[in-house]
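**Sequence with structure:**
===
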Amino acid sequence: MNAILYIHGKGGSATEIEHYKPLFPDSEVTGLDYQTFSPWETGKELTEQREQIDARINSVESRWKKTEGQIYDAVDELKCKYENVILIANSIGAFFSMNAGIDDFVQMAYFISPIVDMEKLITDMMQWANVTEQELESEGVIHTDFGEDLSWEYLCYVRNHPITWSVPTQILYGSNDHLTSLETITDFANKHQATLTVMEGGEHWFHTKDQMLFLDNWIKNEKRNMNTRALVVIDIQNDITKHYRNIVDNINAAIDWAVSEGMHVVYIKHNNITAGTRTFKPGTRGEELAPELKVVSDNIFVKTKSNALTSEAFCSFIETNGITEFYIAGADATACVKSTCFNMLKAGYTVHVFSDCVTSYDLNKLPEMLSYYEKQGCELKIFIENELSGNPPRSQK
């Protein structure tokens, strides 16, 4: 099961999760009523330095102790209990989340009207209030007529700590957002490879009936787009050919890539129930997944025939999650991988085969098999050489 963590914006609360629960019926949806007032209070750094807080001045010390890195701690706790953590963050809640050091724990994020350039927002507000940098540095904190406090400490912090964010992210933005310009949000989306959706006439605060309907449909569409792909690792078990060791590092890298892309990762195991056979027998060490293989999910399904789609549990998983596109790795390229790919294509799915992540008992047959896959309609992709260069897997031509 996945966990959905909602981080509200200024003036919001964790009770807003009630709106999101129907959108994620198969997940545990929870909200955090954080008491964070500045980005240095959100993350791992605070959690690791609690014993050193006394060195801070009293006003900041009390706030640090009060928040205790709540966002980081909340995500860390959820990661220990659930398969994946998905973040929904609103406005400044998104900014705080990106400063919390949670990138390694979060599978994907939905940002609604996020604050992505706090330095620009602060300097914009300084212009609105006719406050110079020299005045703000001298005063430390200046109260404004529009209800925001300008802080020199805050401005210095965001200048010295630029955002680093590597989580696959979907952004919803209103064209009438008065806090963040379209240019700023577009620049952020491009730099962080985030997907940006703009609601014409939408505001920074999504609250009207039309705006909330647009938001709901946006989440539904992005869920379908993000979760319709799966990496399927076939028969990398102890009883498989010794050649699996030649590709297991590549497969593990592909698994890391799939996780970073927010994809499902599925493991298929073969069980041999035919009388008189000795390998892949149920309940034996031979049918267990190979110890070198990285296992990042509980999506492990058993088949007794070469075609993975003969597993009713796997087919149910595909239907439940609306999966339409598969990336294939594993063995044997002349048997179970071949049969699975053929039947997936026959069923109308899109199939990609990582040519450097499949193997066979007979390595001499691999070129012939790869040609067969391509002729049947699979797209051959080379994974590892492009992963090392930082590029996505490319088609093999």
Q: What stands out?
A: The mean pLDDT is 87. Residues 293 and 386 are 21 Å apart (CA to CA).
